[in-house]
Amino acid sequence: MASKKVVDVRSGPPMHWVGDGFPVSSVLSPGSTGTALSPFVLMDYAGPARFGPADRPRGVDSHPHRGFETVTVVYKGELEHRDTAGNRGSIGPGDVQWMTAASGVLHEEKHSAAFTRAGGELEMAQLWVNLPAAHKMDPPRYQELRDAGIPRVELAGGAGHVRVIAGAWGKTAGAARTVTAVVLWDVSLRAGASVELPVMEGHNAAVFVRSGAVRVAGTHSAGARRLAVLSREGAGTTVTAEEDAELLVIGGEPIDEPMVAYGPFVMNTPEEIQRAIADVRSGKFGEL
Ligand code: MN
Question: What is the pLDDT of residues 179-204, one digit of tens each?
């Protein structure tokens, strides 16, 4: 079977602020990408940015989500979260928070108290993973994946390593429970080394370069903060590091349903969006 090909190498738009805590570039968004990278709806990459010490935690106040999952990967800094499903916690470097909003939560996303006091560097990514219609109104679910619990696969010959957050890498299962087949791999690759990504036929996949530079599928170079989008057709693709590189590989089985994304809601129809707005207004999401 043929390998996946690069169909696009793109840059995110200029940075914008999410609340007062997250300077992000929306590498993917419903407006720019639609369902082309389904099940991924959005990818906000934040930083690296330096924050001075402060008295009051920066971030985003209480807001709703329905119809999808928010997945937050922290590389530098520390975040605190609490939601109306009763979950709260802080996540630091290497940790991942996988929040299945499904039928709906209100949550708050802030710099942690310790990070706020001390200041420091923040680097993180937040991904929005769509849910199929059959699971959009499931009860919310929360997975806190600590760095130590995320399987790490060493690549042969000291080429680097892979942190298997979701989706199997060979015989190594990902740490996250997912609703549909989702891939999320953190890959570190030494300059000159190559790796074959085991991305599946018929699945979407893309390689985001956090740092360094790589050549993908032998045809396209991608430097820092670029996203190389792969074809659905084909299985596997080769990535070669042109310099030491850190990558976030995303992918999975496309959800072949209509998608209507509006603000913090991702549903199948405009009527369901209206319902979500009405449910927040009438207090059905609870109160934080
Ligand atoms: Mn949120």
Answer: 999 999 999 999 999 999 999 999 99
